[in-house]
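Our consortium's second objective concerns turning raw sequence data into structural hypotheses that experimental partners can test. To show how far this objective has progressed, the report includes one record in full. It was chosen at random from the queue rather than selected for favorable results. The single chain below, 376 residues long, was entered without modification.
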Amino acid sequence: MTHAYTPGLRVAEKTTIRKSRVLPLPGEVVVKKGDRVEAESVVARTELPGKVFSVNVAGRLSIPPGEVVKYMLKREGDPVEKDEILAESKSLFAWLKASCSSPIKGTVETISSITGQVLLREPPQPIEVRAYIGGGVVEVMEKEGVVVETTATFINGIFGVGGEVVGPLELGVSSPEEVLEPKGIRQEHAGKILVAGSLVTWEAMDKARNMGVLGIVTGGVYDEDLRSLLGYDLGVAVTGSEKTGLTLILTEGFSRINMAKKTFELLQARRGRKASINGATQIRAGVVRPEIIIPLTEGGGAALETEGPLVETGMAVGAMVRVIREPYFGKIGKVKSLPAELQTIETEAKVRVVEITLADNSTVVIPRANVEMIQL
């Protein structure tokens, strides 16, 4: 059978998910292999060294660098408070004394008799890594982190902004064609992840953010509304670190596009369950897709039979695909054929193409690079 390999967009009702939770620096892993964890559980922690500040003590006291140590009131390793005196010149007359104080609260790191500089370091910043998904710890990497495994419903988005959030899943609309507007955002949605249909408006996003909604999963959004949410134009880069106060995931694309029926039905069936979502997206080399993970076990619950880990099988006749370029952007269909010969397209380039039957039974022929596979 003819196959073609192409990036996949996965929608799975029940599958095995593994997530590596790794510290940015070596630290302490606080769970053991076999432990059950919740999404909010801390699994590892470390401390990020504080910022370093340089103080020109020799210049402040008008002394040679080699004499700095003699005038220091603090030694290397000593703690200091903000505005506490570090060094002071000696004189018989009080008005002739000069002093140098600390600009920060921290520790004296080094005192140099070569440069006359004193280096101060702010207190370390504690960093905690949480499990992100509820499940079992299946691997422990000493001083680095863990791997957490769970049985879950898994859905890839096509684009997203905002980082990891965890909260109960709630419907903001009743059908995949419906638009989520401000009137659909209610006080009881605070602390939850809302599911929209074909579109979420800027006004709804703004109200949701102000009311404490954690995230929104929607079929589409207008690019100008996304710009309003971010406060700037988003270039081709890695998303996920935006300080928007709201994680947004698009399952279909930009503009008003009905959420795929299977996706909406899965989210509807999981209403009320705790979901973990991440809007991080990278569309260049090393593709990263936003994700929605809804564990099907709680805490120490028994494992369920799953459809197993994702196996890359490639695109074949009958496979479900989504078009990711105009003029059919966002449309979903089935692969009818995969012609082996190169064909000339409008740009006069010769490329491999795919013949797709769309939902309205029409057939289109487009470059294979313009589609992605939906792995159900």
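The partners drew two points from this record. The CA atoms of residues 61 and 98 lie 6 Å apart. The longest helix spans residues 202-211. Both points have been shared with the crystallography group to help prioritize constructs.
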